Prior knowledge:
The complex is a heterotetramer, with two copies of chain A and two copies of chain C.
Chain A: E1 7-9, E2 12-14, E3 18-20, H1 29-37, E4 42-44, E5 61-64, E6 67-70, H2 79-92, E7 97-101, H3 106-119, E8 123-127, H4 138-141, H5 144-157, E9 162-166, H6 173-182, E10 187-190, E11 194-197, E12 199-200, E13 205-206, E14 212-216, H7 221-234, E15 240-243, H8 249-258, E16 262-265, H9 268-272, H10 276-290
Parallel strand pairs in A: 3-4, 3-16, 4-7, 7-8, 8-9, 9-10, 10-15, 15-16
Antiparallel strand pairs in A: 1-2, 5-6, 6-14, 11-14, 12-13
Chain C: H1 2-8, E1 12-23, E2 26-32, E3 44-49, E4 53-58, E5 61-62, E6 67-73, H2 77-84, E7 90-97, E8 112-118, H3 122-132, E9 140-147, H4 156-162, E10 167-172, E11 179-180, H5 184-193, E12 198-202, H6 205-217, E13 222-225, E14 241-242, E15 245-246, E16 253-255, H7 256-261, E17 269-271, E18 277-279
Parallel strand pairs in C: 8-9, 8-12, 9-10, 10-11, 12-13
Antiparallel strand pairs in C: 1-2, 1-7, 2-6, 3-4, 3-7, 5-6, 13-16, 14-15, 17-18
Helix pairs in contact in C: 5-6
The structure holds flavin-adenine dinucleotide (2 copies), flavin mononucleotide (2 copies) and FE2/S2 (inorganic) cluster (2 copies).
Amino acid sequence: MEGNLRVQLAGLTFSYPCMLASGVLGYSAETMQRVIEAGAGAVVSKSVGLKARDGYTNPTVFQAKNGLINAMGLPNPGIETYVKEIRHVKELICQPLIVSIFGYSAEDYAIVAEKAATAGADALELNVSCPHVKQTGAEIGQNPNVLSEVVKAVKAAVNIPVFVKLSPNVTDITLLANAAVNAGADALTAVNTLKAIAIDIETTKPVLSNIKGGLSGPAMKNIALRCVYDLKEKLPNTPIIGCGGVSNWQDAIEFFLAGANAIQIGTAIAYEGPEVFQTINLGIKKYLEKKQFRSIEEIVGLSHRR
Amino acid sequence: MEGNLRVQLAGLTFSYPCMLASGVLGYSAETMQRVIEAGAGAVVSKSVGLKARDGYTNPTVFQAKNGLINAMGLPNPGIETYVKEIRHVKELICQPLIVSIFGYSAEDYAIVAEKAATAGADALELNVSCPHVKQTGAEIGQNPNVLSEVVKAVKAAVNIPVFVKLSPNVTDITLLANAAVNAGADALTAVNTLKAIAIDIETTKPVLSNIKGGLSGPAMKNIALRCVYDLKEKLPNTPIIGCGGVSNWQDAIEFFLAGANAIQIGTAIAYEGPEVFQTINLGIKKYLEKKQFRSIEEIVGLSHRR
Amino acid sequence: MLDYLTAANTLRTTKIEQIITESPSVKTFIFKDKQCAKAKPGQFLMLWIPGIDEIPLSIFNATKNGKISVSVKAVGEATQHLHNMKTKETIGIRGPFGNNFTPPTVTQMQANILLIGGGTGTAPLLFLAKTGLATIKPKKLTFIVGARTQNELLFTEHLFKICQEGKLITTTNDGTHGHKGVVTEPLTELLSQEKFDAIYTCGPEIMVKKIFETTQKHKQPLQASLERLMRCGIGLCGSCTIGKYRVCKDGPIFNNTQLDEIKNELGISKLNPNGSKTFTTNT
Amino acid sequence: MLDYLTAANTLRTTKIEQIITESPSVKTFIFKDKQCAKAKPGQFLMLWIPGIDEIPLSIFNATKNGKISVSVKAVGEATQHLHNMKTKETIGIRGPFGNNFTPPTVTQMQANILLIGGGTGTAPLLFLAKTGLATIKPKKLTFIVGARTQNELLFTEHLFKICQEGKLITTTNDGTHGHKGVVTEPLTELLSQEKFDAIYTCGPEIMVKKIFETTQKHKQPLQASLERLMRCGIGLCGSCTIGKYRVCKDGPIFNNTQLDEIKNELGISKLNPNGSKTFTTNT
Ligand SMILES: Cc1cc2nc3c(=O)[nH]c(=O)nc-3n(C[C@H](O)[C@H](O)[C@H](O)COP(=O)(O)OP(=O)(O)OC[C@H]3O[C@@H](n4cnc5c(N)ncnc54)[C@H](O)[C@@H]3O)c2cc1C
Ligand SMILES: Cc1cc2nc3c(=O)[nH]c(=O)nc-3n(C[C@H](O)[C@H](O)[C@H](O)COP(=O)(O)OP(=O)(O)OC[C@H]3O[C@@H](n4cnc5c(N)ncnc54)[C@H](O)[C@@H]3O)c2cc1C
Ligand SMILES: Cc1cc2nc3c(=O)[nH]c(=O)nc-3n(C[C@H](O)[C@H](O)[C@H](O)COP(=O)(O)O)c2cc1C
Ligand SMILES: Cc1cc2nc3c(=O)[nH]c(=O)nc-3n(C[C@H](O)[C@H](O)[C@H](O)COP(=O)(O)O)c2cc1C
Ligand code: FES
Ligand code: FES
């Protein structure tokens, strides 16, 4: 089935255009392998930081209407421990492994980046956009200067492609994107979750233990799509990885048309299982054939043509 | 049924806590009357500017999954013509009429505000947050300095309460809110629609004639709720009117618990009809009784208590 | 349920399968659409002409095999563009929207029914006569159709078939076919002679207004389909307001009582695209 | 359909209606929940203790009148809090989640069934024995239950009722009731004497591991319910991973083939809250 589903991006080749989004099933090598076997073109790991974090107490997930609100709190074993998992993943799969990293300072990012790269990561994704952990994510991904500093530090530390995962919770996403690209980012992942909250009327309390969380899934699709569209408009030559609410092949095509070179899938896995990759691949393939396009590349950004 | 559903806000009294949101059925006095008869505590008019605008060519509305994406383009007859409608509304209804106004400069806003007030508006809502018309809305509501200037100009021109309708498309909504309140805003309406886009895969084109639009309805509920929660946290003494995705009484209660003193309803009218006001009023009333609260005021912001 | 309704009526695309030229200015377009296949006579759809406009059109026919037809008069940019389209080209559809014509509550084979169509307004009435009245099997069916001149008389073949056991009255302004004059003239004559269980009309608003006044005078039950500028089609934007009603959601079909409530606007004023009222020339 | 699934399993609140003390450390909580009323034996729910935690619990019973019960052992903060709650207090529920125990494919009244429960793990097995095996009406049903000491033997009343025509074997570490020792001892004896059409187990992982090894040796079909740290409960967060499986979605019930694939982790290692692996003491 490969053939025309291949995409290239920031020097990497992906047999299939859909990757596993960060934070979803991304702890263990075996699950990543399963996702790859199900048709993912790459996996992005759970976001890893310098030190281990347990994350927040449950509830960490709220199933909202047509979407999910989560505040996991970046649980991760810390990079020292995770390097073993990275090596294990590289033994098991031959598709690209993108390690997602986060930190509280440019130095943090650089150290984690270096270790992840040394252990075998094919690319890094900088999570500068987690909307519910203080002093990382939001604070970094919402300030062009800080973002620029972080990207530069990471680029100086590694020789593999660096993706920057943008936050949709900003006034102008293209400003942040510009800062990232000027600092050397090789591609942009758009986007992380939207700031949200869930309140229970019986107890009159917020549901998540962290109170505030991030919305993912179908509810955010047309917002994420707009981010990709705006990015493609302003930065036509920067590779974009679309993410947010993709749950079927039609959604995937919309993201390509908006300007995404590849996409990531998270929440849909909860409902469709890892098999969602296979189903989406098939749908994209049929669409391309029916419309007589020879590759995904041919439809990237096509909705911008007037 | 009135009794415990009364809310007071910025010196105004509303018999019922749900208002008609701006831009929805807000052209003619007769429809506004109908909405009031259906149980709305107030109506907010369609946003009116200095000069008439025809708005955009159709499609102006896209029915997305669990929400609506619109780019009407602020069609309005211009304030000179609209003052007649304002007078007519005031003859027909005795509930508050809030006139929504927009402009391209502080002067514009002040002129329109003065005329609307003179014609009989009980309050004004400044639309500084329309996400798809250039040089108004977004540009004003996303910049604290410009916003402050506009609010000051309007406050200087009129003696009636001034609400500021905030955009969710900003990095930190509380910053803008602060600017508005410091400039004299009497209440905050949170929020307008979220930046979004709809793309059709068959034609490979954006659907709306304006290409980009704003998302409303259930898909945005937990995002709007978070805006209200954040505002209540930072500005505990400023009245807040919650808006975005309310479609049943449970949603309404969630907004009160998050910190809204009153709410607005738009998109739900498309599915439930104006009768949605009555249904929601009833639900709120039963909730208050069951939980033995004596008024809506008692539950405003309750989710913040630890 | 709210969510399902929204999702259910999202825009979908389909291809034009067949185009029939009905008159120099009217064409019928046939395409597949599952949701509109369930439409009832009087309902309308929103038709998207990609890159151009999205316009409301009455459903002319909906068959069980999922084929839908709409009959369109070229009057401006959108309709002209549609007229220039070819089979296999893509259009978008939302709907069916609005309420529908309802049969009178009478015993089967008892009803005396009158239908009055003007221009493409005849389309939904034909749909009604063919399928919407099946439950009551009218005893007698009279159809009045009007046009400026003979070659603008629409759907004559269908009309003859339907009125095999009924009565067909045509009017043309220039007398090239049937009664010379307008539809209200034969209507007045009929109403002075017989009583109807239901009268249905669709056509230019000024015609509807005259028919309404005539039926009021004779205390006869009317259901009239109205047209207004439409944008959302789902009762939200207020563009189609007439009196306290939204034509897209509370209508497009209105009965005598409702028509009486809006008689100050019917055939008299309209909302402009900017929401202000314009008074139409003939009052 | 995706959307409906999400919406359908959103958190709802309910009130505790009844609390039964089963043993010094175990209580059964009964409450109403429409969705969980459709649960099948082996499935679990996520129970929210407002302000404290949300934890996975096996469904002990689900009746047609919508009453659900869960049987909970106080082991830490969340379970202790739950034990301190009173009737009429509010809890939140999501679920039912996960797969379920399946009856063997045999002719009615032919099956020879074995169930092995440890601690609260006996609860879902009772649910299975009472309702999940109805379609096959087992010829013979043997239940082995184990506990440290007599007063920690759970659900004895239910067990006696169910095993009226079957066989009940109890084990206690201190010999205060039944066989002195652990459940694997009578199991080994049984397996050397008879063949079973299905063996079901739920209990401490180390017990499950031993039972798995024993059934493998005798080539007997096992379905075992596993426990892992759970957060989302819907197969997304990866907290409950064992091998390539998500216990919350691909499990909690696993068969011999699957257990064999994960034997390097079963009873040996677990994911910590931070996602790293810990090796448990007994291997
Ligand atoms: C419920 C409903 C059902 C309709 N059914 C049919 C039908 O079956 N066949 C058919 O040919 N036409 C029908 N129409 C009218 C059709 O929608 C308009 O002719 C069309 O929108 C005009 O678009 P245009 O760009 O070609 O013309 P424009 O250039 O926009 O205008 C040409 C003329 O049409 C009028 N008009 C423009 N837009 C609308 C509109 N949205 N609604 C009503 N009038 C409008 C203008 O006032 C002007 O007089 C219906 C209208 C409604 C509201
Ligand atoms: C599918 C499934 C079904 C279960 N069914 C039942 C049941 O019917 N009755 C019952 O009493 N218990 C059941 N459990 C175990 C129950 O969820 C834990 O006992 C509970 O979460 C412990 O919470 P705590 O805060 O009281 O203890 P903690 O203070 O969190 O921990 C106490 C001990 O329990 C373990 N533990 C903590 N959290 C979990 C968790 N989420 N999953 C598993 N073990 C955990 C810890 O490793 C520790 O050893 C089930 C677990 C799973 C995964
Ligand atoms: C449970 C969960 C955990 C997540 N954890 C992370 C994370 O650790 N790092 C990150 O960059 N994004 C994280 N995300 C965001 C996703 O990678 C993705 O950007 C978002 O969910 C939108 O995509 P989706 O709608 O396909 O899920 C998480 C999302 C979910 C639902
Ligand atoms: C068709 C439509 C038109 C709108 N027009 C306006 C407008 O003119 N001025 C304004 O301030 N908000 C406008 N809005 C935004 C609504 O007032 C409201 O903020 C938003 O729709 C969220 O609420 P809802 O989910 O209840 O619709 C419009 C919304 C819709 C759907
Ligand atoms: S067309 Fe929008 S309300 Fe009727
Ligand atoms: S608990 Fe989240 S994947 Fe199983």
